[in-house]
Amino acid sequence: MTVSYGFHATMTAQPGRGDELVGFLLASPSLAHEDCVVFLVGRSAADPDVVHVTEGWTSEETHHRFFATAEAQGLVARLQPLIAGEPEYRDEVPVGGRAAL
Amino acid sequence: MTVSYGFHATMTAQPGRGDELVGFLLASPSLAHEDCVVFLVGRSAADPDVVHVTEGWTSEETHHRFFATAEAQGLVARLQPLIAGEPEYRDEVPVGGRAAL
C-alpha cells in the first residue's frame, strides 16, 4: 500500500511512565486500521521516557477521518496525562522499507 | 524479532537527487539482512531532498559487523556523493508496531 500522508512524533512521558506510554501506543487501534500503513514506535536509548511514533497513512483524509472519531478522541484524552507537554512533530512521510517487529 | 540497537538518520540529498537517494537506500542489502529488523525510509513532504531512515537491528554487534563488511563500506562510499554534508543521527530504537509498505 502506498503512503501519502505521515509524520514523526516525539513525546516525553511523565517521569518513569515511558513503558506505560509505549504500551499505550502499541495498543492503539491505528495499528489495525486498514489505512494506517506504518505505525512504528521507537524509544530513546538514553532516556526511557522519550518515545517516538512514525505514522504513515494512505491519505491525509483517512487519517483525519479516523482522528475525528470518538474512539480516537478518547485515546487522545487518555494520552494527555501520560505525557509531559505537547508532542513534537517532524515532517516525515514513510515511503518504503520494512519492519519485521 | 526484538531490536536492541537502532537509530534515526536524516540526510539531505544533493539538490534534486532526493529520488535517487531514496532509491539507493531502498536497494540497500540491509533490507535483506536477517538481523536488520527495521529499515524504514521516509521523506520530508516539504523538501523532497530531505530523506530519513530509521534502522533497528537485533544488536549493536550485528549492525557493526555488517557495517564493517566491504559491501557496506562500498555503499557508504557510493552514498557520500549523493548527500550534502553528514547525516544527522537521533537516538531512536524501534520497539514495536508495523510497516506494511
TrEMBL record, chains A, B:
<dbReference type="InterPro" id="IPR011008">
    <property type="entry name" value="Dimeric_a/b-barrel"/>
</dbReference>
<keyword id="KW-0503">Monooxygenase</keyword>
<dbReference type="Pfam" id="PF03992">
    <property type="entry name" value="ABM"/>
</dbReference>
<feature type="domain" description="ABM">
    <location>
        <begin position="5"/>
        <end position="93"/>
    </location>
</feature>
<dbReference type="InterPro" id="IPR007138">
    <property type="entry name" value="ABM_dom"/>
</dbReference>
<protein>
    <submittedName>
        <fullName>Antibiotic biosynthesis monooxygenase</fullName>
    </submittedName>
</protein>
<dbReference type="GO" id="GO:0004497">
    <property type="term" value="F:monooxygenase activity"/>
</dbReference>
<keyword id="KW-0560">Oxidoreductase</keyword>
